[in-house]
Write a structure and sequence with these properties.
alpha+beta, Butyryl-Coa Dehydrogenase, subunit A, domain 1, Butyryl-CoA Dehydrogenase, subunit A, domain 2, Butyryl-CoA Dehydrogenase, subunit A, domain 3, 4-stranded antiparallel beta sheet, 11 helices, about 45% helix, AcylCoA_DH/ox_N
């Protein structure tokens, strides 16, 4: 892994830095910093305009192959973009699920018709996507899915429920993992469907979180329909396609996440200096540990991605989720300790809106639960990375 940048990569960094500085000080200056941790719906409509502007300007999908409307950027260029985007204070992305999950899945497994229909609108933020995977009783154990789809003529008819569906209330489409083979169990008999959200038979119910936000939703399917040819990867191959989708989720987007972690840690350090808590040796030690943990995340992510780019499987990738989730949860605690008594107060101004670091603390409680709990992650590390005996499972 070479962490030095070539002259061409440094030129690319200068290009994106200049572009962001120009446009985030102009028409979009008012959305700087919006959409941080625990504030995912903040300034939603204005941030959608920003996403569309990114698409029109050629910066939305830089990692996509040029054949699909991207820039074909290298791994290091994508890392540079993520770092500069965060450093510029650009708003949190609203198109992650479409750009980083739906689109790569369609590129890898979709038909030519599906690629032509969906990829341009994902790139240009003309259509937003949500992910229909988790269900009550089928979260970490995803193979326990019960949502069903039956074939009626040239359509699929869907019955069931999904939960923790981010941005479902604003989405145009959902990629849905459901059971299409009657009587099938576990990972067999599943299919990966593309389903329009604006139709009778779909009921979206937002779930209010501790932060007051409602990013997550319950989604009920009661006779919802989608076309028969909107199955990705072939009927019955949903588990294979879904596992590939989850692999894309662990890709370069992790570097963008870490760049935002950098901003959060810098804000906490600045506060510690301002209110003199940085003089406390225990607080200083915790800040140092947070800094070291963030650097470990970066180097491990770069190592994993570099190996993947060369076609080498890296077992180190298995530790990424449990590491960053636990680190971020501790960062939330550190933020509250540095804020002191102020951490327990909510301003009456602006409709009792909490401060950014308060939202960080509350939202980070969920980091060790979603996308695979810490307990599940430990099992994965033990069984797949360390090759230990598998945990006994019921029949």
């Amino acid at each position: 892994m070479d962490l030095n940048f070539s002259p061409e990569e440094n030129a690319f960094r200068a290009e994106i830095r200049s572009w962001l500085a120009e446009h985030l000080n102009g028409e979009f200056a008012h959305i700087r910093g919006l959409g941080g941790t625990g504030e995912q719906l903040e300034g939603f409509e204005e941030r959608i305009k920003w996403e569309q502007f990114l698409g029109q300007s050629g910066w939305a999908a830089i990692g996509w192959p040029k054949a699909f409307g991207g820039r074909g950027a290298s791994l290091m260029e994508q890392v540079i973009f993520a770092e500069e985007y965060a450093r510029a204070g650009a708003p949190g992305r609203l198109t992650h699920i479409g750009l980083e999950l739906a689109a790569p899945t369609i590129m890898a497994f979709g038909s030519d018709e599906q690629k032509a229909r969906f990829l341009p609108k994902i790139r240009d933020a003309e259509e937003l996507w949500c992910q229909g995977f988790s269900e009550p009783g089928a979260g970490s154990d995803l193979s326990n899915i019960r949502t069903k789809a039956r074939r009626e003529g040239d359509e699929w008819v869907i019955e069931g429920q999904k939960i923790w569906t981010s941005h479902a209330q604003h989405s145009d489409w959902c990629f849905l993992l459901c059971r299409t083979e009657e009587g099938s169990r576990n990972h067999k008999g599943l299919s990966f469907l593309l389903v329009p959200m604006d139709q009778p038979g779909i009921d979206v119910r937002p779930i209010k979180q501790l932060t007051g936000d409602a990013e997550f939703n319950e989604v009920f399917f009661d006779g919802a329909r989608t076309k028969a040819d909107l199955v990705v990867g072939g009927e019955g191959n949903g588990w294979k396609v879904a596992m590939a989708t989850l692999t894309f989720e662990r890709g370069v987007s992790t570097l963008a996440q870490q760049a935002n972690f950098r901003n959060e840690l810098d804000e906490i350090i600045a506060l510690a200096k301002a209110n003199d808590t940085a003089k406390d040796p225990i607080i200083r030690q915790r800040l140092a540990e947070a800094e070291m943990g963030l650097r470990v995340q970066r180097y491990n992510a770069l190592r994993t991605l570099t190996n993947a780019e060369s076609g080498t499987f890296s077992r180190e990738g298995y530790i990424a989720k449990i590491f960053w989730a636990s680190w971020h949860r501790e960062l939330g605690k550190l933020a509250m300790d540095i804020m002191g008594p102020e951490a327990e107060l909510i301003s009456q101004d602006h409709d009792y809106k909490m401060k950014r670091l308060q939202n960080l603390f509350l939202f980070s409680r969920s980091d060790t639960i979603y996308a695979g709990t810490n307990q599940v992650q430990r099992n994965i590390i033990a069984e797949r990375a360390l090759m230990m005996p598998k945990e006994p499972r019921g029949a």
